[in-house]
Amino acid sequence: GQNIDQPTEMTATEGAIVQINCTYQTSGFNGLFWYQQHAGEAPTFLSYNVLDGLEEKGRFSSFLSRSKGYSYLLLKELQMKDSASYLCAPMDSNYQLIWGAGTKLIIKP
Amino acid sequence: GAVVSQHPSWVICKSGTSVKIECRSLDFQATTMFWYRQFPKQSLMLMATSNEGSKATYEQGVEKDKFLINHASLTLSTLTVTSAHPEDSSFYICSANSGGEVETQYFGPGTRLLVL
């Protein structure tokens, strides 16, 4: 079957760094997306990884290890507005995104 | 770039009425659009995949006669919830594939439906 495993909730302090881990199992693999979803809003695209390694984009970086079925999203210099759910979504062999419940990140001052 | 709009953003209707939701890709052409539903504190649930000019592909358990999808052009897909009931109250979100080397899904802002 296909499944995604992310922590349900994480708490971090403003200005700090947090790493959100994701392990996945899919039928085939065509890359992995990270989305941010604020409460009551639709998801917004953050990053895409298809090759192993780290992709850096400003304060956000995403890492992928295909052999381990593992990815993480690294958020630096946390701001209060980063409080949101973060969705790890691998793409299967049919180019369909597989969605989990995401990780709710709470930022405290 | 890659902006997707949805209209309306909020709908409140009586049970038994039909509700139409529009999804538009504003600055790109989308051969494929997706319709999702999300209940509070739950994950996104794909309802159907809509391809321009052809019939939509519905996920298991989604009634095609209740959720009518039309993808009339490369920039417009519509979802009609027919004879809506309170259990259809949810957050409906569309997304569109940007195409290109990496087919990234960009989401519309969503439509919150409340059926009384």
Describe this structure in words.
The complex is a heterodimer of chains A (about 110) and B (about 120). With about 110 residues, chain A is mainly beta. Chain A contains no helices and ten strands. In chain A, strands 1-3-8-7-6 form a five-stranded antiparallel sheet, with no helix packed on it. Chain A is globular and about 40 Å long. The termini of chain A are far apart. With about 120 residues, chain B is an all-beta fold. Chain B is built from no helices and eleven strands. In chain B, the strands form two sheets. In chain B, strands 2, 4, 5, 6, 9, 10 and 11 form a seven-stranded mixed sheet that branches. In chain B, strands 1-3-8-7 form a four-stranded antiparallel sheet, with no helix packed on it. Chain B is globular. Chains A and B meet through strand 5 of A and strand 5 and strand 10 of B.
Mean pLDDT of chain B: 92
Most extensive contact: A-B, 19 and 19 residues
Spans of chain A with pLDDT under 50 lasting ≥5 residues? none
What's the mean pLDDT score of chain A?
95
Structural class of chain A, by secondary structure, is mainly beta
The dominant shape of chain A is: globular
Q: How many DSSP-defined strands of chain A?
A: 10
Summarize this structure briefly.
The complex is a heterodimer of chains A (109) and B (116). Chain A is mainly beta. Helices cover 0% and strands 53% of the residues of chain A.
Main features:
heterodimer; A: 109 residues; five-stranded antiparallel β-sheet; B: 116 residues; mainly beta; four-stranded antiparallel β-sheet; globular
